[in-house]
Amino acid sequence: MPVHTLRTNLHTGEKDPRMELAVLKTIAGLLNSLGRALVVGVANDGSAVGIENDGFPNEDRLTLHLINLLEDRMGGWHAVNITRTSTITKASACWLLR
After folding, report:
1. Between the CA of residue 87 and those of 14, 24, 77, 84, what are the distances in Å?
2. What does the pLDDT look like over 9-35, one tens digit per residue?
3. CB neighbours of 87 closer than 8 A, spacing ≥ 6?
4. Does residue 1 carry a pLDDT above 50?
5. Phi/psi of residue 50, each to 5°?
6. Cα–Cα–Cα angle for 58, 67, 10, nearest 5°?
7. CA–CA separation, 50 vs 48, rounded Å?
8. How far apart are CA 95 and CA 78, in angstroms?
9. Checking DSSP bridges between strand 37-40 and strand 91-97, what pairing results, if any?
10. Which of 15, 23, 28, 67 has its CA 20 to 30 A from that of 81?
């Protein structure tokens, strides 16, 4: 089961712009769909993996980084879709809702 992060390549442990591009493609697909929720920091099987692998000092910085990516690459109007961060079984997660 693949686990993805916002900006860190888990194979190399380094920041990788390809990870950000993959997240943006997923968000674009989500926004073009009938409406779903995307949760960053949760694996495909629903287990919480957290956002710690991305190295953000806190959830606010992750949210700001994601908002900046959306504004820079997709247009600022998509940033309003980021609604909250929360804790899922001791692991942080950022929710993107349509």
Report:
1. 25, 22, 26, 10
2. 878 889 899 989 988 888 888 777 766
3. 93
4. no
5. 80, 175
6. 60
7. 6
8. 13
9. antiparallel
10. 15
Tokens at residue 75, please? 């247009």
pLDDT single digits (tens) 35-65:
666 666 777 777 777 777 788 887 788 888 8
pTM: predicted TM-score of the whole model, two decimal places? 0.73
Phi, psi of 68 (to 5 degrees): -60, -40
**What token pair was written down for 76?**
């600022």
Which tokens sit at 97?
A: 């809702």
What residue type is 55 in one-letter code? G
Token digits of residue 5: 């992060």
Round to whole Å and give the CA distance between 45 and 33: 21
